[in-house]
Design the sequence.
């Protein structure tokens, strides 16, 4: 499970605050008495699944450690329209400085969790798990992957360092799937897995013969996927990918694949409408 308490997350939050505030909040510092205190509430304006609540404490601890936050739901809970999800008390300037950033995190992360849940629900009752990809916003990957988990999906690999994925360009550069797998196997730890992207049944057979741990069926028709699943016959983990959407994901899952990866759950999630009201 990805943690929002990590040093990496805290550093990313600090950088986000620097980006937004710079040398100071010109509006709040000009209008608000430095000693003023307020109470404000985070309210939902759209139903969905909440994600990112632990970041509220991280953000406001940087702005003013005296700010108090009380949450009424937990990440992963389904929220209704008009629901009060958290209350914040403390210095007005600090709260106004952190308002937009806190909402940016909550809105974006909750949207990803909500859309992931829709995709996972769409493949019921099949065994497949919906996965994220590395097509994420730079410096926001940890938050997007976390949100996918909250929505019931799988984060897939986090980066280039935690799994071998031999794609079409790697195969072209090396000359064949067989050569690529053999070369990787020599140099990686025995605990690491090798995934091979395939586009044809011939490539699926080559990946099997090469000993791939995971075989990706990329942009294949449903019929071709069924043929590939039958050929693999539980000798490797099977992942489907390519042009996945809510309309076709159930058909893809029906082929018997183990995982379905899609960038849509992060790239097309948008935001979930949440507001902060004094």
Sequence:
């Amino acid at each position: 499970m990805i943690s929002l308490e990590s040093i990496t997350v805290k550093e990313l939050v600090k950088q986000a605050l620097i980006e937004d505030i710079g040398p100071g909040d010109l509006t709040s510092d000009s209008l608000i008495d430095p000693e003023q205190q307020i109470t404000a509430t985070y309210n939902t304006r759209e139903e969905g699944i909440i994600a990112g609540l632990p970041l509220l404490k991280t953000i406001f601890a940087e702005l003013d450690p005296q700010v108090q936050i009380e949450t009424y739901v937990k990440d992963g809970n389904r929220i209704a329209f008009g629901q009060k999800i958290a209350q914040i008390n403390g210095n007005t300037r600090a709260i106004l400085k952190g308002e937009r950033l806190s909402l940016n995190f909550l809105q974006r992360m909750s949207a990803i969790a909500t859309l992931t849940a829709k995709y996972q629900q769409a493949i019921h009752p099949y065994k497949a798990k919906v996965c994220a990809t590395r097509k994420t916003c730079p410096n926001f990957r940890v938050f997007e992957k976390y949100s996918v988990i909250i929505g019931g999906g799988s984060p897939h690999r986090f980066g280039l360092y935690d799994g071998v994925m031999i794609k079409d360009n790697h195969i072209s550069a090396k000359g064949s799937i067989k050569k690529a797998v053999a070369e990787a196997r020599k140099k990686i730890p025995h605990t690491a897995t090798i995934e091979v992207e395939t586009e044809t049944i011939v490539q699926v057979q080559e990946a099997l013969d090469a000993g791939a741990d995971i075989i990706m069926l990329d942009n294949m028709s449903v019929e071709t996927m069924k043929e590939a699943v039958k050929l693999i016959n539980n000798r490797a983990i099977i992942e489907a990918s390519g042009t996945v959407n809510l309309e076709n994901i159930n058909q893809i899952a029906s082929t018997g694949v183990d995982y379905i990866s899609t960038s849509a759950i992060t790239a097309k999630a948008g935001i979930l409408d949440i507001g902060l009201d004094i």
